[in-house]
UniProtKB/TrEMBL annotation:
It comes from Tieghemostelium lacteum (Slime mold). Residues 1-20 form the signal peptide. This is EGF-like domain-containing protein. Disulfide bonds join C927-C937, C946-C955. Residues 923-956 form the EGF-like domain. Pfam families: EGF_Teneurin, TIG. It comes from the Eukaryota. Keywords: Disulfide bond, EGF-like domain, Signal.
Amino acid sequence: MKLNLIFVFLLFYNFYNVNSSALNVGDVLMVNLTSIGGGGTLTSMVRGIFSGTLGYGENIDYFLFNDASGNIYTFNVAAWPAGVTLATSVATTAVNSATSPLIISNNITAISNQGSLAIVMTNTQIMTFASGSVFDNAPKTITNNPQTNMYMRCNSKNQGNTDLFVTLFSNSNVLSIFQYGMVSNVIQNPTYFGPNVQLSTSIKFFLNDGMGYNIYGGGSVIYVQSETSSIPITATLANYSFYTAVLGVSQGVRYIYLCTLNASGQVFLMVYSYNNETGAPEFSNAAFMGYGYECLSATIDSAAGQVFFSWFGYANTLTVSTIGVDCKGYDQRYVLPYNVVSNQPGQSTFSYPIGTRNSTLYIATPDAKVHMIKYTNLCPNLCSGHGTCYGGTCTCSPEYVGKNCAYPPPVFTSLDPIPYTSPNSTISIIGQQFINDTLVITIGSLTCENSTWVSETLLTCALPLDSTISWVPTQSQYVSIKFTTVEYNMPILKLNIFILPHIIAVSQLNSKIIVEGNDFLPLQYMQVELSGVNLTCAFEVGQDILSCDIPDIIPNRTNTISIPSVNYENRLLLIPYIYDISPSVFKADNSQEVTISGIAFATSEGTETFKVLQGTLSITVNSSSVSGRSIIFTPNNGIVTTKTISVQVGDIQSNSVTYTYIAPTITQVTQKDSPNNEFSISGDNFGTSVVLVQVHVTTQSNTLDMTVLNVTQNSIVFRGIENMRKGKVTVDVDGQSNNLGIDLNLIPRVTSISPLPPTSGGLVTINGQYLYDTLITLNSDVNDNVSLSCSFKTISNYPSEAYCTLLPDCGFFTIKVKSVYPGGQDTIDFESNYHEPVISSISPKSYKRSANQTFTISGQNIEERNLEVTIYDQPCNVTEVLPPTQVICEYISDVDPETVENPVNITISVNHIVGSNKQLLSFEKSCPNNCSSNGQCNIADGKCKCNESYNGADCSTFVPPASSEPDNISPSTKLVTNIFTITTILSLITTIFI
């Protein structure tokens, strides 16, 4: 069934592909063969053979034939003109049997040749001839009675002195094969080759391939027999008869080309291959060539890959047909103007021998004529002059393609890829020199439903809808483009069918690696790698941003970021990123650990150094406190003004996060005793920086800022400003407040009262601190906790002055100052007294010893209460008091005048407050001899002040007046004085400069 299908196809193909240009009818020439020595034109040929048709059919060099009279003729075909203008050609006879007396029989049964060497077999002999003489002087005698179809074949390609194979076929269809050696053109004794073989029909062809095999056959059987084996291997094709054959080799494979007929008279080229090792023939191909009765001869143009057959056509026509060795090309037939008498006795493949030389087909006919037909190759349009033809198939030069080499090769430039997610699968293929032809475009395993030639630069391919959904978009697909009519397949390309992602940028955004681009594919086709580590990624809004998680521990600080599926690779520096810190509210000391949470802190290398930057302060962190996602550190002791935390790895700094400190708390405010304008606040989270702490005292009317002197984590020392008032104390530490505050009562202090109040009472100034908003009371002998009316003229409260009016009294008194504030009160006492008595005059101003003297003493603050008067520390008995300005007393002095110093001291004590005066009263002392009347007596000290010209204790010594003559100072004395003065000045100047 398979063979019949092949025949139907080949019959159809060849029937409609006849090309008359291969065998040129107008180029047929005929040569009339002439005998040697001008013997005239030969008129008959019994058997003929062209060298080169014995096996593989190389170009012929000689034509050998014999006539009916037994004459042998050899013609040098190479000497024949090959031009199409050839008319008749005179051939010289190389060998004529009439000159060979060794021939004992003219019944020639077989002929063969090896180049110019003729080998002739009669029914009794085998001889060799060359150059007009018989080489073999002792022709080998054949004792068998051969049949008409005898075959002699050499086992090489027309080279001399090789083995000769002879077939003998008995009347009972028993085949015998003898092998004759040949040495120096002399035939050696034969060797029987193989046993007798019973054949079903006569042998129609016998060939030796020169490679160790004899191929022969007839009827429906082909025999292939190795020269080393006595048993042939057969192939049978029922209902077909093999007539003639020729051998060939294509691409190292051995082929048998056979002219075959079936019962319907159809002529076929049958092609069999046979194995180089076993010789087993196997059917390969077939081609229909026409209708006829019998195949005659065969030859092959190995260079052109064309097989030629001669056969009997209908109406007894001699037909020549040619076809490619692979049954390709156009079947060419030519009917010669020659009538064939079929089934003539002795007719065989040697009756109409054919051969080829230089694109000319030679056909010999029994009338001793040689017909020459110029032929061209079987390729369409002769390969357009742009290639070589073999067996009907063009091998184009590199510049051309197609079955007829008529087109410059199409050039692929690019493929316009399609989006992976698009259901429209129409693909544009861009190039140059595209051939306008029916196309078959295959992409991957899919054949385009509509392959269209648009222009020389554009082809389109419409794949089935949604057919590409199963394809991996990053994998290239094989693309094949076939131009069917011109039979050209472009080189298969492996191309990206889908639009591959275009990566615009890769960057780090906080804790993510961001891949930006266009035409992204589904995630399973876009695995992002960080130095070989697969990342977990997700699409952001839309499909143009890919967000990937940074791994806990990154491979390196600078990594290779790649997407292998789309051939993307770049370098990316990963910066540590902080999510948050815990706790985010710090204590102001370094008593707690803080954990920084983030990403990209540590690398696999483990060689980096780590620092935490707290504001502008750098804190070194041990690597043992660092993991890929956390860093543990202890903050700085004290408050840092820039409240940010960042991480520095090597010289690379992370983002920063903010933190705060725990708000300050106040537990107590204490006022110092000295100085009492300084206060101590107890609490927590104050830090250590004075400049970051503000202390406020808030009253009902305003808030005042205090001066901070010292700060520790748990205490603040501040100084109150001069206009400070009692109120609520609050603390701001670096902008954070204890808004509740704590009540502060200022402890007042009185330092003095001025002036001392007169006994009649009046306005005094009470000097001290923190007297504002206090209650001031008076306690004395006659006043018990009496509130004073006071006023203030300045805003200062440190120091402060209270202007108060005191009630009349005398003696000592106590000022109580009480400051009251929510939660308690503070009271202080200040001891003072009324103004002491003031003595402004006394009368009389002197007194004597032992004399009773009444004194009237005038002044101020003289009261009767506990009134005491003393003169020179002796009591003066008060006789009368005129408060508050006068007192009268009596006094008798018994003090030794020598012990008294004038003026004497007067004291007045009023209610234990003493006033005194030592300027007004003198004790009268007598002078010696009453100064002898030459001077005045000073009663205060009892000494004389003598008049002029007297001296002495009693002024009794006269002192004469001094001389009035002027001083007599010489000029030399003045000069010496001046020189001394100048010398002294120069000496002083020198000393100063030195």
